[in-house]
Amino acid sequence: MRKSIADRIREAVREAALKSGAVPEGELPQIVVEKPRSPEHGDFSTNVAMLLSARAGRRPEDLAADIAARIDKAAASLSDVEIQKPGFINMRLSRDFLEENLRVILTEAEDYGKSDFGGGEPVQVEFVSANPTGPLNVVSARAAAVGDSLVRLMKACGYDARSEFFVNDSGTQVELLGLSLKARVEEALGRGEAKIPDQGYHGQYLADLAGEIPREKALEMLDDAGETSGRFSRFAVERMHEAQKSGLEAFGVRFDQWFRESSLHTAGRVEETLKALRQSGLVYEKDGALWLKTSGLGDDGDRVVRKSSGEPTYFLSDIAYHKNKFERGFKKVIDIWGPDHHGHVPRMKAAARALRYPEDWLEVLIVQWVRLVRGTTPVSMSKRAGEFVTLSDLVSEVGTDCARFFFLMRRVESHLDFDLDLAKKQSDENPVYYVQYAHARVSSILEFAREAGVGFCTLGEADLKLLQTPEEVAVMRELANFPEYVRAACATREPQRITSYLTSVATALHQFYHHSRVVGTEQNLMQARLVLVRAVRTVIRNGLDLIGVSAPDKM
RNA sequence: GCGCCCGUAGCUCAGUUGGAUAGAGCGGCAGACUCCGGAUCUGCAGGCCGAAGGUUCGAGUCCUUUCGGGCGCGCCA
User: Closest nucleotide (CA of A449 to C1')?
Assistant: First the structure.
């Protein structure tokens, strides 16, 4: 849980920039230190001199030279600091640091990569939150992969992160679900073809559910219900909820909390929220309905919060839900919504403003569509007819690891084609196995060493100076980058950065493997390489854990 | 019509929150140590980053316009 190397370098650069007197402390911009694309430019690079030169009235290269000379190399674990063309300051990590870092990795083990960046701040990530009216689709699957990974990332960065699923267990949709099930039950009892409401749920799953209800119980439920949907709704919602929950668990996703919309109504939270909104002075009546003046708060029109019928709108209970989140003490709330809800972002943010919550309190991520294809042909998905590939179908067809990895290879907001044929292939055509294979390969080397009776020396005994080939050094550099990638993936809410990082670690490992042997070389060199390989194993394992993918020892 | 997302190699997508010579996987072609796992590795071919302007030392990245694709615009949830 120490400071990442990038943080230490940032600080050293910052201090050097201050000492150069280019600008007063207050005017110093955020220092950007990053890994250059080309290794010729060192391990880290900064552009401060170019950013400050205009204001300081000095030539970029002169200023760069001045700052570079003032960087405390020892404090930042640097061996070389050079300036280049337009005014870059390029830095190279010291050999000592790279060696020491291997020891750090093995010592910190599963903690390597973690930080206390978040300072224990309570944050909430809400995702999936699909209506309990049917099986989860693949967009929910994608959202689940993203949300779960984000929670893992935020925890690793020192946030007190909680996952939550909002269960939409009241309202029109639930009623329609009940009526649809009722029709299926009547059908199952042989009373003719099911009379499912037009807007109801036509999927086969409700017929299946109806079929599971024993005859006696079905008759009893029909008696109870009369013309209403009540009992069928409750029954169906509970069963759908359970099915969603177990499907997600099979996908490796467990929620800290399942929050029921109905609990807001029964506790009077919705009316209470309306009262709070009225106090803001932004509620007015028109056409017998109550409106919230969200225009002017970033929305493009006002929204109804209470219908002329007296019923609260879904929007109002959603506001009540977010008010509840705020009152639970979350300093930040991240909602992950499907693409069909992107139009709701402005109104929800407007509501947060109406309640005078901090401007950046609510963050909404939109997960984009997933198009399933087999080779080049799209898989037809008709939600209306209830015929679509579900989360559970996906898991049983391609497996959890594969599905999660595929979802997390892409940016959250990009539309993605999920090739089921490719995902199913257990061959080199499938990108998923590349990283896992690296882990299995390393495990296998260690196992081979054990079987050969090789004793592992202690960390202090290993002579890491012997790791000198370009491939070895490349691995060491790659491993040193991990904490910074974790931090960046968390800060930008972009878990795909971890996937891409892991791929480059795997590449470095595979290249090293083909270039040199571990077991069977000279004793001291072998011991040093064993340390290297164990460090790779730790980092890959930690990284895969962040995206919820297993790290197999054998494949 | 208004709003959001996307447009990068033949295909699917990355691109380190404005950096230096734009990358990976798949597909194509040509190769790899009698030895720790060939689900790997090496090399070649493939690009005006949809288009046009602008901002600046510097743009795939930011702004404007435009073209194309997807999705939203209810007193539904």
Answer: B36
Q: Which of the four pLDDT bands, split at 50, 70 and 90, describes residue A34? A: confident
pLDDT > 90 in chain A, percent: 71
Give φ, ψ of A147 to 5 degrees: -65, -45
Q: Which of residues 405-444 of A touch strand B (CB under 7 A)?
A: 409-411, 413-417, 419, 422, 426-431, 433-434, 437, 440-441, 443-444
Domain spanning A99-117+431-546: CATH superfamily: Isoleucyl-tRNA Synthetase; Domain 1 (1.10.730.10)
E strands along A287-360, which residues?
A: 289-292, 303-306, 332-337
| CATH architecture of the domain covering A5-93 | 2-Layer Sandwich (3.30)
The complex's ipTM works out to 0.93
Strand B proximal residues, A:282-311, Cβ < 7 Å: 286-289, 300, 304, 307-309, 311
- Encoded tokens for A52: 């400050």
Residues A230-257 have pLDDT tens digits of 889 999 999 999 999 999 999 999 999 9
Residue ranges per structural domain of chain A = 5-93, 99-117+431-546, 172-250
For A4, A73, A472, the CA distances from A184, given in Å and listed in that order, are 59, 74, 65
d(CA A523, CA A512): 18
